[in-house]
User: Fold this.
Amino acid sequence: MTPDQIPLRSSSALECRNCGEVAPLDVHFCPQCSRILALGRHGDYFAFFGLPRRLKVNAPDLERRFRELSRQFHPDYFYNAPPAERLASLERSSYLNDAYRVLRNPVARVEYLLGLEGLAPTRSDEARTAKVPPSLLEEVFALNEELDEIRELRESGVDPSALRARLATARKPIERRRDEHERQLQELSTQWDERQERVTLEALRERMLERNYINNLLATIDREAGAIGNS
Amino acid sequence: MANVVGIDLGTTNSLVAYVKDGVPVVIGGEGGDPLVPSVVSLGDDATIYVGREAQRRLLTAPGRTVYSVKRFMGRGVEDVRHDAAMLPFRVSGEAGGVVRIGIGEREFTPPEISAFVLRELKHRAEEHFRSAGEFDFEVDRVVITVPAYFNDAQRTATRDAGRLAGLEVLRIINEPTAASLAYGLDRRNRGTIAVYDLGGGTFDISILRVEDGVFQVLATNGDTHLGGDDIDVLLIGHILRDVGAGLPAGTVQAIRKAAIQAKWDLSDHLDAEISVEPAPGLPDGYRKRITRAELESMIQPLVDRTMEPCRQALADAGLAPKDIDEAVLVGGSTRIPLVRRAVQELFGRPPHTELNPDEVVALGAAIQADILVSGRREMLLLDVTPLSLGIETMGGVVSKIILRNSTIPASGREMFTTGIDNQTAVDIHVLQGERELAGDCRSLARFRLRGIPPMPTGLPRIEVRFQIDANGILSVGARELRTEVEQTIEVKPSYGLTEQEVERMLIESFEHAEADFETRMLIEARNEAESVVQATEKSLRRPDFADLASEELQAGERERIDRAVLELKQAIGGDDRELIQQKTHALNQATQHLAEVVMNRTVRAALSGKNVDDVG
Assistant:
């Protein structure tokens, strides 16, 4: 670990630091002198890849773009360049890698888009998701009862294989809800890609919050399964 | 333009390679062997021995000889207590600080020991370029490989070692990735590769996707404390159970040597003999047959330990074993048949072994060095950071900022604020690891953000930016967003050297390098002088010398030669290199006529049909 200072980003980074030419947003190299541009103000991960803000992403195409951009920016190719260009290459590569990691993952992609559109979940939203979403009330009630019973039986030393079967049965309805949820996310994503309406994003945001709750339920079941396995 | 090389700085052996006409080649030593044992020994006269010579001294001066120092790089004394107990040299250091290795009256840090090995490789490469007739034979830049699973402190320690050896470290790259580059030279096609690297002290698994010349690491995992050394320890334990403990260190080293030989033999044969010559504490020596099956049952748990990282790396890459198109073996320990079988079973296909597993990493390092200086773009390595990076938050919980297996370079940000009014500094603790609690992760450094403008509690918004570069090494920057004030950061590395310490060692190493250079020159001058003395004495002992002297030597010539020999012998006994060179020259002058006479006689004898040897 080194105490290197990362220089401040100038707010006028739209100007090429080499020749002073004003470069448009989301261009990686100066149109005038073709030097690599410092990572200044920029649009977003989508624009960085030259993609529209859509949730459906063609994975092989994204991968190809990632490789092409890597070949353009990677610090390996700026080893002999002046310090400013080396820094630009480091920053641009880091940004590219971060962008690629987010965009290739469908869930991260939705979260990122919500953030871009000013709809990132807030702390109060997260507090709200700690409570049971009304649509899940019935399943959650049944599951908790079943989990309590299984726990008791486990502690009294009942045959683990019988308990495992019960747990698997209890998992089914939650899994069904998750699958349905995934379908809804898919549909809403398609809707966004077709119409780009804010109401779609708001619906996506609700689904994402519920999704956390469902995943937590599944994690609880898995923990119990682990406890049975160890007993 | 001075030269660049790639160096595989291994636990057991190190190698240097370079790209010659587009092809990577390893550089051999005098006997052609490219392996330099990563062993350093300090002579009683402060001479530093490196490599084979140092390895021989393990038997005669075990307390002054250091090996497997890679296990100590970037670590604290509390981490290495277990290893240190197995090793003959003295290991110390303050709690929570860098390990120090004591040899005789001197103390060294692991980067300093590694720097001796690097300097030897640098010298070897320079000799190679010099003898190839290059005008500028200097080696000044290098790519050094490290295990993929090395953390920030271990990488930084390796980079420090390079600097201490007088080399500019162009890049630190991961060993399995380097190996894939060397394999990738022949096969530019696309595919998913698993590189299984079991070396002397470390184990790595890397999963890569290769397409259009881009070598993208998808996931990596490993164990920086698992390798051939551990197998040796098991075998040594096996022998010690027979002969009893409490033997002198030199005898234990003799046993270690025999154990390693038996391990090697068992890779090619179904049984082997462990054979130790009689030694102090072991008057009758030791002999015992051991079968491959016995060895395998002994080391099965070690091989099993490599399987979990493999499965984890596959899971992180989102792949199943059947998705792997090719498996590649790297590291000397992959010669063991049991290891090969385990890899074959896991990936369902026979692994590649075409390239020498000892050399393939250095070859890859040489290719990467060439890419960096030449601007060649047909290949590109995209590696990942092996461990998550985070900071300690309330209650000792780690908040992850950059996740493991993120492609590097990678960056992350975190916002901080103050807890009391007008607070002007904030302490930050940076960690690496996958666990939830700071106490279970690896402490990288602590720093203090200073210069925060006085404001009410919670108002400052300090953005700390973490940047992992292409070496996998972290740097940090910070600023307060409301005032745009850049913060000063003082980094105290937890298990590394501070910048000032490196600077100081660098200055010392220059002083030593001069002394080392002087020592080398002195040795060379002595060798030269001795060969001149020998040649002269050989001529003086010729059976026909009396005859020759009376017929062809001038009056007083014999006396002048005798005096010159005597004076040179006296000079050789001292440490004055210039005097030795001067007296060597004087003897050469004194024997010039004699040499001509001898040469003429030899030629005449040859022409008259006699064998030259009969004459000489």
Notes: Chain A has a mean pLDDT of 82. The two ends of chain A are 44 Å apart (CA to CA). The CA atoms of residues 29 and 231 of chain A lie 61 Å apart. Chain A touches chain B at residues 1-8, 63, 67, 70-71, 74-77, 79-80, 90-91, 93-95, 97-98, 100-101 (CB under 8 Å).
